[in-house]
Structures are given as structure tokens and as C-alpha cells.
Design brief:
Helices cover 55% and strands 7% of the residues. It is of the alpha/beta class. The protein has three domains: 74 residues, no CATH class; 73 residues; 119 residues, Rossmann fold (3-Layer(aba) Sandwich). α8 packs antiparallel against α9. The N terminus is likely disordered.
Length: 339
């Protein structure tokens, strides 16, 4: 393996990050003053000291302040931001929220164009207005949302809550543990971030977590751990004009029942997590599910299954390997329920 002793060049990402941080520091007049006290050379072109009693601001200084909203002179010292601007370097406006340093220049340019067209100076304001717009038009989009898969709703909720948790948590830590070390302006800003996080969190919970999703109805819920068998049976049922949904574990089957009520359940007995016997007993003892017919679909011998029929409350069983004609009884039950 070849080792390279030279330090690798910094990536563009970190160059941008350092430039922005440098601009923030040098635009702080106190830090500029400290540099001067330490004897550091912070300007090769002009003196830092500026006596406003002896001189008036130059036209360049006035133009800089109008363009950037920053001071060219602060407490008698020419600011680093003005010096950079005068040299033609980019000066960041701290009144506007910076785009993440981890995105491409193309994305940054797209965001800047969007800002000019829409007057959104901060991402947080865009998020707030987007949520408010969603709320005001909620009745119009309810129908579309109700057609979404429950997993999609859950993923949307998670995607919104995950970053919000970090923002809310860290701002709370700063308020509780470092409030005596922070200036009043910074502390007020952090408190505002924390309060806005709570508002957004409540809106997400109210308008996403409470959505009642309309799950498409189907005829048969198949609980079977063999994927090949699931594909075979669901294809056969669909070919006969019946909707069948297959899940590969007992816990998935129980979870599915919370979303939809099938007309019949085909239940394997030996599953990777729960026993089909126990699942059936649980369903038949529940007032909500007890009237759903349950048929075991199993490779266990018929004599063994027979012993458990009364105990579990199952309506019948089909043995593997099965013939497709064995499912005629299933079709008869579904037809009766539809009529």
C-alpha cells in the first residue's frame, strides 16, 4: 500500500465553511480590535483606525452599508467586511439564514433564485408557511391523503420529527445549561427556536399522526411465512377475482388487522414469531375479530390439528400440500359474506 505523506487538499465543502466562519469572525469589530491589540496585521491596504470627527465616510463606505446592511465603521475601526467587499470578495449577510454548506453550488443558486422570486429569506419561514398552507387547504387534500399507504404516512411523520427532535433538544440544552454564558440576544434567539420547534411538532402530530387512512378492502388475509406460498395463493385468488393480502409473520398479521378487516383469515400454524394456535385463540376471544372465519393452512397432520380445533375456535383447516380445489370452501364463505 502506498502511503502519501502530503496532506490532502481540503474539499470544496470545508473551504466554503472556513470562508463563511472567517467572514463572521472578521466582521465582528471586537475580534478585529483584539487582533490589532495582539499585533496581528489585519489590513495591508489602509489603517484600521478611523476618526469620524476628522473624516467623513467615503462614498464606498456608504454604498457598502446600503448594499449589505452592515457597518463599514464600528467604534472607530474599519470593519473586515468592508475591507473584503472593497477587494471584491463575497460578503455574507448574517440577517439571512445560510443554506447548508453540504449542498452543491447549483442547489444554492436555485435557493437564491427562489428567495428573489418568492421573498422567502429563511428556510424556517418557508417551513412555517408551508405548514400553515397545508392546514388552510386541509379539506381539499384530505381525500388524496386518505388514499396513502399507512406506512407512507408514518414515514412522512418520522422524516419531519427526526430533525425537529435534534433542533428542539439542543436548543433546550443550551437554554437550561448555558443560559448564564450566552448573551441576551443569542438566548432570545434560541428560546424562539425552541418555541417554534414545539409549535411545528404539535402541528405535525395534529395533522399527520391523526390522519385516518382508508385502507383498501380485501377478501382474505393470508398469514404464511413461506414467500413462495404467499405468491402462489395470492395469484390464484386474484385470478378467481378475490383480493388476498399475504404477510410473513404472526405479528404482521395482527398489525394488519388493525388497518383492515378481511372476510376470512388463512393462518399457518408454525410461524417464526407466534403460534397460529395462539393467534386464533386470541382472535376468537376478541369481540372485534371473533366473527372473522379462521382456517388453518398447515403441514401438520390432520389428526393433530383436529385436537386443537375446539380449543382455538378455528372454523376449519386446509392441509399442505394442498389442491386448489381445497379452497372452494373459502370461496363459498366469501360469497355468502358479500351477498
Amino acid at each position: 500500500m502506498v502511503k502519501n505523506s502530503e496532506k490532502p487538499e481540503k474539499s470544496k465543502k470545508y473551504e466554503v465553511e472556513e470562508d463563511e466562519n472567517e467572514d463572521i469572525e472578521e466582521d465582528d469589530p471586537e475580534k478585529s480590535k483584539n487582533k490589532k491589540l495582539r499585533g496581528e496585521d489585519i489590513n495591508d491596504d489602509e489603517d484600521d483606525e478611523f476618526n469620524e470627527d476628522d473624516q467623513e465616510k467615503t462614498e464606498e463606505m456608504i454604498r457598502y452599508e446600503k448594499e449589505t446592511g452592515k457597518y463599514a465603521i464600528w467604534r472607530g475601526i474599519i470593519t473586515e467586511g468592508f475591507k473584503k467587499w472593497k477587494k471584491g470578495e463575497k460578503v455574507y449577510n448574517r440577517d439571512k439564514e445560510r443554506i447548508s454548506l453540504y449542498v452543491s453550488d447549483e442547489t444554492k443558486n436555485m435557493w437564491q433564485d427562489f428567495i428573489k422570486e418568492s421573498n422567502y429569506s429563511t428556510i424556517s419561514r418557508l417551513i412555517r408557511d408551508s405548514v400553515d398552507a397545508f392546514i388552510s387547504h386541509k379539506s381539499e387534500v384530505n381525500e388524496s391523503i386518505n388514499r396513502l399507504n399507512p406506512d407512507t404516512i408514518a414515514n412522512m411523520s418520522h422524516a419531519l420529527k427526526e430533525p425537529l427532535t435534534s433542533i428542539k433538544g439542543y436548543s433546550q440544552l443550551l437554554i437550561e445549561n448555558y443560559k448564564t454564558e450566552l448573551s441576551n440576544n443569542v438566548l432570545d434567539t434560541i428560546k424562539n427556536i425552541f418555541e417554534q420547534s414545539i409549535l411545528l411538532e404539535n402541528k405535525i402530530i395534529s395533522f399527520l399522526d391523526d390522519i385516518q387512512v382508508q385502507t383498501p378492502e380485501y377478501d382474505v388475509l393470508l398469514v404464511e411465512d413461506d414467500l413462495a406460498t404467499i405468491r402462489l395463493i395470492t395469484s390464484y385468488f386474484e385470478g378467481k377475482g378475490y383480493a388476498c393480502k399475504g404477510v410473513a409473520s404472526g405479528s404482521k398479521g395482527i398489525e394488519e388487522l388493525r388497518n383492515a378487516t378481511p372476510k376470512l383469515i388463512l393462518l399457518d400454524i408454525i410461524l417464526p414469531d407466534l403460534s397460529g394456535y395462539e393467534i386464533c385463540k386470541t382472535l376468537k376471544s376478541d369481540n372485534v375479530y371473533k366473527n372473522i372465519p379462521v382456517y388453518f393452512l398447515t403441514a401438520i397432520s390432520g389428526s393433530e390439528v383436529e385436537k386443537k380445533m375446539k380449543e382455538t375456535g378455528a372454523n376449519g383447516y386446509i392441509l399442505k400440500p394442498f389442491n386448489f380445489s381445497d379452497f372452494d370452501v373459502i370461496f363459498d364463505i366469501i360469497k355468502k359474506k358479500k351477498s
